């Protein structure tokens, strides 16, 4: 069953309670997933936004939670509107025209947030990999506000791309095909970069001359990437397939539910990783999140210099003699 397809006419000809009655249970399950995911992402947003000092990686996590929560909210409102107009019939005549108009944007909004999650996960993975492979260079040369700049660029680029897809899909199948090709190229590049970054990071930590254990934040990021490939990527593949061959962007039940699970699973990952100690789960949600996100950026597994000893780089003084210049730790 397709939740929305512009090739059909149910969104313009559907009357009160005449169809889709057999899918009420399915929609209710989707709503439960949405509510569960929004609560989880809301807790993460409150914790990262108000209860701890941000570091370069929590800025990405904060934006990722915003994308996931927004995806779930859009889907929740869509299902609520559908049940309202097709099953419950409450406020049908006043709400139905608005619902018919907005329903066309639902697939594009969902795909926008999925692509944004892909970009943010790629940014997290890439920067995390660089911090492991080149720790001293990373601390001395990384721009202070790089995380915020990269997140803003990702939001703007994906938003511009989805607006162009929306416009092209209205112009005809030819333009939708071109948009699909560009989107596939964009997704493949980000996916490969994300995959290579995580593999190189794990190899560097586990297979180097000095084997080091993965920190909790490393584990959480790797699990986020794995679940995105399992749950989020099918949604993008199906969306680009529809654009490529039909010129439309649709939301189907299987890939849609997988996308909902992808947006809901990250808070669970943070809690399980943060609360797991000696193969036993213990601690409150706040304590678990603190263990994951308050890992010191300068840690033994990243930094060859002992904690508390500032790293130095040599700069030429006025007389040509070398003088120490401190590389301040990242905030």
UniProtKB/TrEMBL annotation:
Keywords: Cell membrane, G-protein coupled receptor, Membrane, Receptor, Transducer, Transmembrane, Transmembrane helix. One of its GO terms (molecular function) is G protein-coupled receptor activity. One of its GO terms (cellular component) is plasma membrane. PROSITE patterns: G_PROTEIN_RECEP_F1_1, G_PROTEIN_RECEP_F1_2. InterPro entries: GPCR_Rhodpsn, GPCR_Rhodpsn_7TM, MRGPCRFAMILY. It is found in: Cell membrane. It holds the Pfam family 7tm_1. Signal peptide: none annotated. The keyword S-adenosyl-L-methionine does not apply. It is a multi-pass membrane protein. Belongs to the G-protein coupled receptor 1 family. Mas subfamily. PANTHER family: MAS-RELATED G-PROTEIN COUPLED RECEPTOR, MAS-RELATED G-PROTEIN COUPLED RECEPTOR MEMBER X2. This is Uncharacterized protein. It comes from Melopsittacus undulatus.
